[in-house]
Amino acid sequence: MNDFKYNTFTLSKKKKRRHESRKRSKTIEEIVSFVKEKSNILLKSKFYIELKEGIKYQFLPPHRPNIVDIVAYGIGSIQDSNISQYQFALLLIFKNIFQITGRIYAFDPKLTQIDIEALNYFEVELIKTNEKAKRSIINQTLFFMPHCPLGLYNNLIKSNWDINKLENIIIFGNRLKFYEEIMTKATLDRKAPHLIIVIQQQIHRPITRIMMIIKKT
Ligand SMILES: C[S@@+](CC[C@H](N)C(=O)[O-])C[C@H]1O[C@@H](n2cnc3c(N)ncnc32)[C@H](O)[C@@H]1O
């Protein structure tokens, strides 16, 4: 997370409007085909082989119990973003890797109507309210949270602040140590008091590199 940068550029207002309308004109069929295309690219990549191996030896039985549900926050708009299409494709791949027996749920305030249709198409259930990641788990749950705001990670951990619950959660997201590297302890204490305890106790296994690979594709 700390050794890559978002590419920023400025568009004129006219170009921006044209850009927006081009983005918006995508149909559900196009979105579905974009996601399938990204999925094929990922499945053929070295990244996928490494990811699958890493997951197999850390996060699948007999190393830990089966994941039941996946909850995805902060993927962004699949309609508008190439990166979101990759991340959504990876989310669907996770369904197979983890052989989940429950459901996939998703929420991002940026989801458009077409995004919601895409969720339906791929049998991902839309979370209808902005729960700000304050979901208390009832099953073994994987939270798919690529590059989410710091507060969401903290809310999730706070809402499951019980060792029996924390043990049943996997968070696929930013490398948590990164926050310790870029923020003072006082800021972290104020903004993410629960997250900092998890960081300090080192009860996380960083996998941000994976998201960085997705960013670059
Ligand atoms: C930095 S962007 C990351 C987007 C995308 N995952 C990526 O890697 O490019 C953070 C995302 O978190 C989403 N977000 C903000 N608040 C949220 C909330 N309460 N629940 C779910 N997602 C949220 C934003 O809409 C945005 O899409």
From TrEMBL:
Entry superkingdom: Eukaryota
Residue ranges annotated for the SRR1-like domain, each copy included: 63-198
One Pfam family of this chain: SRR1
GO cellular component, one term: cytoplasm
Assigned protein family: Belongs to the SRR1 family.
The protein's name: SRR1-like domain-containing protein
Lineage, uppermost ranks: Eukaryota, Fungi, Fungi incertae sedis, Mucoromycota, Glomeromycotina
